[in-house]
Amino acid sequence: MFSFTTLLSIAIAARAVAGSPIRSRTPYVVKETHFVPRKWKQVGQAAEESTISLNIGLKQSQFDELERHLYEVSDPDHERYGKHLSVEHVEELVKPSAESLDMVREWLLENGIGDLSYSAAKDWISVSIPLQTAEQLLDTKYHVYEHEDGDRLVRTSEWSLPLHLHDHVDAIQPTTSFMRTAGQKTEFLQFPPWVSPEYIPPTNATISKVCNISSVTPECFMNLYSTKGYKPQATKFNKVAFNNYLGEIPIRPDTEKFLAKYRPAAADAAYKFPQYSIAGGPVQDGPLNYSQAADGISREANLDVQAIMGISDPTPVVSYSTGGSPPFTPDLATTENTNEPYFVWLNYILSQPSIPQVISTSYADDEQTVPKAYAERVCQQFAQLGARGVSVLFASGDRGVGINNTCLSNDGKNTTMFVPLFPSGCPYVTTVGATHQFEPEVVAFRPGYYAADGSYREIYSSGGGFSNYFSTPRYQEKVVSSYVKGLGGLYDGLYNKKGRAYPDISAQGQYFAYFWNGTEGVISGTSASTPLMSGIIALVNDVLLSHGKPVLGFLNPFLYSKGYKGFTDITSGSAAGCNVDGFAAKEGWDPVTGFGTPIFPVLAELAKGY
Ligand SMILES: *[C@@H]1O[C@H](CO)[C@@H](O)[C@H](O)[C@H]1NC(C)=O
Ligand SMILES: *[C@@H]1O[C@H](CO)[C@@H](O)[C@H](O)[C@H]1NC(C)=O
Ligand SMILES: *[C@@H]1O[C@H](CO)[C@@H](O)[C@H](O)[C@H]1NC(C)=O
Ligand SMILES: *[C@@H]1O[C@H](CO)[C@@H](O)[C@H](O)[C@H]1NC(C)=O
Ligand SMILES: *[C@@H]1O[C@H](CO)[C@@H](O)[C@H](O)[C@H]1NC(C)=O
Ligand SMILES: *[C@@H]1O[C@H](CO)[C@@H](O)[C@H](O)[C@H]1NC(C)=O
């Protein structure tokens, strides 16, 4: 519906410009302004003759209703628990109103744009148009921006829409989003790794035998989290998937070497998992070739696939490789490939009638590189996955509350603050932090150091924090306010006390044994914890499916009401960063390790109870 002011301006505009195109039916008014993030600088004009693929997010007609369904089917105390929605039902709820569809189509047609493609739910329209047309359409000017690390994007800091469309369009990208998703992994091939002087070796004979502080393996995780001996039964129905971006490819021969050494019965699986290529995302069956290895690709993808398979085999694993993420484009004229990282994958996966029940993503970026409206839209699409019964897991990041000396706001004021990540701070995903050591497990941490080649390796510290965009969801209100109260004012002003806090849970994430380019090494990060946890959630789903019960779906309402009893509380360490110790782990939930690390049999029993 129009607001009063919109009606008024239409009336005025119509009188003033009677007979002119509908495009000018209402005046253009700025729809979104977003500061160019620090580290990016404008390096030149975008080539006018280049094309841009604009994605227009129409207002979803009944997102509130979708959210209500999501919370009902995910709440173990609700009678609808586990009654997940079909693709048709979700699409019905999020499709835009006929009025929004008509008005936006009319506006595009008036601008000579007729070749529109729609997402399955029609909530996104994509058009491929000359940059110049996009500039007229949005009354803006695109420029080429370059990051300190050399990446380039074609973006703008402000765009406008005719006023009568403001309530019908949530977001249009690429415009102001500088999100570049990055794998949350750190260091590799470092022998021997740094070990805390406070490390106490385990006294439990089993743990002591299978867990090596310098190189943790599936045998260690199986014992530590008590999945050892569990034989998956529902492998016909159950799946666990992981996402690859930025040209990452899970390398089969490396995976086979890893499994042959650490999970021999699973070695065949290395050649069996399907790799889906979306929007030209790379896939291959053979080893890394010389130039791929020299470029250092696939460390992230190898870690993800090996961490999942090491724990969840023989549960079928699925790999998605999405292309179109910002590549390094050194030439001002060739900056066309500027897709948003999650957009393509989400629209692909949401159109599928059947989706793997658990999906692991180890990629994230600073929340403030993403304009709020766009972050909200992406987050809403994760909610759609949740409503369909999918557990969506994201990494909490590897830099504690933020990297030293870079913890500033991006609002033009340079206010000192902690730097939360996205999508880690989206309330509809489950965010996973990292632990280290065994008895007890503590927050994963390694100080910064100079590597043999003289390069500086950043501090590694499991990420945690509070979103500045999303408010505390009801499911975590109690534990978050109690944690905030316990801080007694510490860090006041540096974080949003009323924000969605993360992570929700955690798992081992330091010095994972893994294979890359044919060689064994170790690698760390919440990028390790997230696929490991995803594999364990897949095992819980296996228990449920083999008892004829629905899968867990969106985990958080279950975790915060009952599931937390199936986790070992982590109480030592902190999310160090931003030149301070950061949020400390403590008894109960905390924004460093969430509820802690899984105890599979207890978690499975709790889940089975509903
Ligand atoms: C622990 O792992 C490191 C790194 O792989 C290895 O050098 C060391 O021998 C292992 N220790 C034991 C007791 O297996
Ligand atoms: C040692 O750890 C194993 C694996 O978690 C567990 O089954 C066993 O009960 C533990 N033993 C003792 C004495 O705590
Ligand atoms: C390595 O593989 C990539 C991807 O298939 C290919 O583009 C490249 O040309 C290959 N390089 C060599 C040296 O074979
Ligand atoms: C990858 O492995 C090949 C074959 O062993 C080796 O020649 C090459 O140096 C390795 N590359 C890197 C970057 O380690
Ligand atoms: C904020 O920092 C940026 C670069 O670090 C600088 O260009 C800008 O002038 C600063 N703004 C204020 C208000 O201090
Ligand atoms: C970050 O800052 C803290 C506190 O000032 C300091 O102890 C730590 O060494 C710094 N880390 C790095 C990697 O510079």
Could you characterize what this model shows?
The protein has 610 residues and is an alpha+beta fold. 28% of the residues lie in helices and 21% in strands. The protein contains 16 helices and 31 strands. Strands 12, 13, 14, 15, 17, 19, 20 and 27 form an 8-stranded mixed β-sheet that branches. A 4-stranded antiparallel β-sheet has the order 4-5-3-9. Strand 6 and strand 7 (152-155) form a beta hairpin. The longest helix is centred in the C-terminal third of the chain and has 21 residues, at 526-546. The two termini are 42 Å apart. Mean pLDDT is 91; it is low at 1-23 and 326-336. Residues 293-294, 517-518 line the site of one 2-acetamido-2-deoxy-beta-D-glucopyranose (NAG). It is an enzyme of class 3 (hydrolase).
Write the layout of secondary structure elements.
Blueprint (H helix, E strand, L loop, with lengths): L3 H13 L11 E6 L6 E6 L5 E8 L4 H12 L12 H8 L3 H13 L6 E2 L5 E7 H7 L5 E5 L4 E4 L2 E5 L6 E5 L8 E2 L2 E3 L16 H6 L7 H7 L15 E5 L7 H11 L12 E4 L11 H6 L3 H14 L4 E6 L18 H10 L7 E4 L1 E4 L5 H16 L3 E5 L25 E2 L7 E7 L5 E2 L1 E2 L2 E2 L5 E2 L2 E2 L3 E7 L5 H11 L11 E4 L2 E4 L3 E5 L2 E6 L1 H21 L9 H6 L5 E2 L28 E2 L1 H9 L2
Bound molecules: 2-acetamido-2-deoxy-beta-D-glucopyranose (6 copies).
Do you know the CATH topology of the domain at 186-196 and 227-608? Answer: Rossmann fold
Tell me, what's the shape?
globular
Number of strands: 31
Query: What is the beta-strand fraction?
Result: 15-25%
Short précis:
This protein is of the alpha+beta class and 610 residues long. It is globular, with a radius of gyration of 24 Å.
